């Protein structure tokens, strides 16, 4: 599938690969309101910490997503 996409984009376009699409999802889903736990499951991560690192969210977005996913857990700043 990636070969077809890259062929359609032309020889001078930046190559698209599966990892790029995966990373894009990890970054944009939480910004669009997706629950961090669903993103964790989607990416197949065993640990929420892995998802946080992988997605490279800005701290404010990450804190908001974490607080929404774990409302009963108090985290000191």
How would you characterize the overall build of this protein?
- The structure is a single chain.
- This protein has 77 residues and is mainly α.
- The protein has one domain.
- Helix content is 64%, strand content 0%.
- It has five helices and no strands.
- The protein has helices at 2-9, 18-31, 36-43, 48-55, 59-69.
- The radius of gyration is 16 Å and the shape is elongated.
- The chain starts with a helix and ends in an 8-residue tail after the last helix.
List keywords for this structure.
mainly alpha, 64% helix, 77 residues, single chain
Short description:
This protein has 77 residues and is mainly alpha-helical.
Task: Note the main sheet.
Answer: none
Number of domains: 1
**Uncertain ranges:** none
> From N to C, what is the helix and strand string?
HHHHH
Number of strands: 0
Number of separate helices:
5
Which geometry do the CA atoms define? elongated
Mean pLDDT: 78
What is the terminal-to-terminal distance? Answer: 44 Å
Instruction: Assign a percent range to the helix content.
Output: 55-70%
The percent range for strand residues is under 5%
Q: From the alpha-carbon coordinates, what is the Rg to the nearest angstrom?
A: 16 Å
Structural class: mainly alpha
